[in-house]
Fold this sequence. Notes:
- By secondary structure, the chain is mainly α.
- It folds into 2 domains: 22-77, no CATH class; 80-290, MetI-like fold (Orthogonal Bundle), CATH 1.10.3720.
- Helix content is 71%, strand content 0%.
- It has helices at residues 2-21, 23-50, 72-78, 85-116, 122-133, 141-150, 158-161, 170-180, 186-193, 198-209, 211-227, 230-235, 244-254, 260-290.
Amino acid sequence: MATTTTTAPTTETTSIRAPRASRPGNLRKHIALIAFAVLMVYPLVWMVVSSFKPGNLVLSQPGLIPSEVTLENYRNGWGALGEPFSLFFANSLFLTVGSIVGNLFSCSLAAYALARLDFRGRRIYFGITLASVMLPMHVLVVPQYIFFSQLDLLNTYFPLLIPKFLATDAFFIFLMVQFIRTIPRELDQAAAIDGAGPFRTFWFVILPLMKPALVTTTIFTFIWTWNDFFTPLIYLTSVEVYTVPVALNTMVNAETQSGVGALFAMSLLSLAPILVFFAVAQKYLIRGIATTGLK
Length: 295
């Protein structure tokens, strides 16, 4: 009895003190994470504050507490290029929606063919698809530009949208192939017994089950297309067809130091669709990545 009463308090004391010993380490980790978060958020906060400063005070008073607040930057930036900035938002939205539709249509069909259909050279085609992921996009810029120039399609959205409908984004093909391979083949066999061909099997059986992969493709396509600057800069030359990133770049070249505030104001507005879209679709993005074998 005496032995039992002396051992129990020792075990209980050890189990209680163990979490306390790790508290200094956790505190240091939290402090480091908070400091890192502040470091990352500071440029965004500074841009928000600067967008409400008069243009001549943006660089002369770089602090976070403005001495004067104004909305003049938003009024000046909205029509700085001779066109309302809503036009550039509409152009980016049109291009983004078209790219999403193209990727969902073409990449899902290509992924289904590579994952389910048996044809000669399927592994070779899949290998070429994976190899194209490793190929820098800048290697293809010159031949693509010459090709679309000969078709007289420059300064239009066709060079930006046509590749999306031809399954040129190999990353999304690989994403969907990995997801389709997790779907039991017994579903395909049951559809074949009912008389469904490959396309009907894809449309009525496989495609409804691909929702996580399709949502992930939609999210990435939206973010990448909306923020894409290099490709529209090459093919678009008229202000009327500019996207938001190209319009912002034109403002950088056109504005002087007094117009930096207008640039910040329009940059802040251009971030709003991305932030709203990501906030709404964040849970679908995490779920889609987790269910497509990329975790």
